[in-house]
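Researcher: I'm preparing a figure for a lab meeting and need a structural model of a single chain. I don't have an experimental structure, so a prediction will have to do for now. The sequence is pasted below. Please return the structure as C-alpha cells so I can convert it later.
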Amino acid sequence: MSYNKIHIYLVLGGVIWLLFLFYLVTHLYQYYYPEPKQEAIKLLFLDKKKVPDHENLEFSLIGLFSPAKVNDIHLFGVRAFESAIDEFSGVNRNYISTNAELPKNTNSLLPVFDKDKLHCWLWDLADQKKDCYSTVDVLGVLTKNKILIERYGSLHRFKYIDSFIELAASRTDLMSLQKLYLSKIKADLISGNDKSVLSLLEDVRLYENILRNDESWVGKAIYMVMLGTSHALLEDIISQYPHLAKKYYEPIKMSLNSFQLHEFDIDGVIRKEFEMINGIFCFDKHLNIKTDLYCQSDRMLSSYSAEFIFNDYYDDFSNLKDILKLDINIIDQQCNELDSYSDVYIDILLHLPLLPNYPAYRFLKSGLLKGCRVMTNMKFNVSNNAFLNVLVDIKAKRINDKDIQEFLNMRALYEPLTNTPFVYSTETKSLEFPAGLPDFVKMRSVRLYN
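Model: Understood. Here is the structure written out cell by cell.
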C-alpha cells in the first residue's frame, strides 16, 4: 500500500473520529442541558387558573377566625392579605403570600368546646364508654359558637380557591369548625328540622369544589378527609332516617354522582407543588420564561442544571398520573415498596451537573412521593361514593333483608374498582365491600338491620 493511500485513510479516519466526537459532545450537552419542554412550560406556567379575589375562598378562610365584630370575613381576609404585602415593597402578591405570615390578631374568634366530647356525641360513641356531651350540652356549645358556625356556612357559596398561602387558615381549626357545623345539622335533625340534610349536601359540595381546584398533595389529602367527614354523617343519616333517604333521594343521589375520579385534577396538583418550589428555585428566571409567578432567590439553583431538573420534574409527574389508572391494589403495593430517595441518588450519580443542586432536586422529588398514598385514597373515594349510592337505594326503597343481595347483583350497582357487586352479609346484617380490595377498604361496612 502506497504512502499516499495510508495518508488518505488516516485523514479520513481522523475526520470520522472528529465527527464522532462532535456528535458525542453535542448529544451529551443536549442530554445535560436540554431545552425546557414546551408542554411543561404550558402546564406549569400558562395553564394556571386565574381566580378573582371576590370568588376566591382562600380570603374567607383567612378571615374566618377574625374578631367577632367583623361582619365581612372575606373583605377582612383581602385587607389582611394586602396589609401583609405593604410591609414588603417591590414584590408581588404571590411572592408575599408564600413567604410572609399574616399578622396575628389577639382577638381572633376560635371554636370553644371539648373536641373529644363533641366527637363522641356526633358519632354516637357513648356505648363505647366514651366521655360524651349530652344533647343539651351540645345545644349550649352551638350557642357559644354561633358566629363561627354562621361564618362557616357562608363558605358554601364558593366554587373556587387559589391557596396563596399554603394552608393559610389553620386547617386544624377549620376541621374543628366543620365538626361544629355537622353537629348543628345533627341537632337540627333531632329537633325535627329535616331540611338540614340539604345543608349537609352543601358541605359535601364545598369540598368537592375545592378538590376540583389547584391544590398541593397535602391540601388534597386534608380536604379529602373533610369530604369524608361530611360523607360519614350523610351515611349515618341515611342509615338512621330511612324516611329522609326517601324524601331527599334525588338531591342525595345527585350529590353522590356529581364527583368523578378525573375531577381530582392531578394537573392542578402538579402546578401547585411547582408553584410552591418555584418561589425558592426560580425556574422562570433561569429558563427566561415570562410569568407572574414569584421568585425569591437563586442561591440554591445553578442555571446549568435548571433545564434538566425542570424537565425531569414534569416527566416524573406525568408518569405519576398514569398510576391513577392502575388497580388500587397495585397502587397500594407500589406505595408500600416506594424507596423514598433511591431514585434521587441514582439521578445525582448519572447526572453530575445536578450535584451542586442536590438539596433543590431532593426537595422537588419529595412532593412526588406524597402523591402515591393520596391517589390511593382518591380511588377509594370513588368506591365509597358507590357504596353510599347503594346504601341510599336500599334505605329509600325499603329493600327487604331477603332481597338485598339480589338487588346488589344488579349491574348498575357494581363496585367500580373491582366491577363486582357489593356484598350483603346475612350473618351480620351488614353491607360490605367485595373481595379484591386492600384491607383498609374491606374494613368498611354498614349495619343495615338490627
